Amino acid sequence: MTDLENFYNSLEEPNKSCFLFLRQFILEFDPAMTEHWKWKLPFFYYNKKPFCYIWKDKKTGFPYVCFTQSLHINRPEMELGDRKKMKAFIINPNSDIEVKTLKEIMKESLSKFD
Questions:
Q1: Is the pLDDT assigned to residue 94 strictly greater than 70?
Q2: Cα 60 from Cα 110, distance rounded (Å)
């Protein structure tokens, strides 16, 4: 198994389902999106440039998507937290993911790559 496969297989529910959904959603969002194992976490690249990664919050354990081009995104759903350059979209794994909001954030973040 690859490091990526080990990562996803080691997760417990409900985070496992949430992470697997996010993986599929991000990869299907645009054909130029690819997944890599970088800094010991799943990192997604858009046209060979870092786009976002998925991880879980240390305090809550909730999954989140952190976007590399997100400082310009001013949405209440995005949190800077202790980060200096990237904001995160936190997801409660016990609730439905706000797919529409996630899609809008991804489009806005992708607009900075052109």
A1: yes
A2: 28
Q: Cis peptide leading into 14, omega within 30 of 0? A: yes
- Nearest C-alpha neighbor of 75 from the set 105, 111, 109, 114: 105
This model's pTM is above 0.85? yes
Number of Cβ atoms within 10 Å of the Cβ of 37: 14
Report the first-to-last Cα separation within the chain, whole angstroms: 35
- In angstroms, the CA 113 to CA 27 distance is 17
Q: How far apart are CA 58 and CA 1, in angstroms?
A: 26
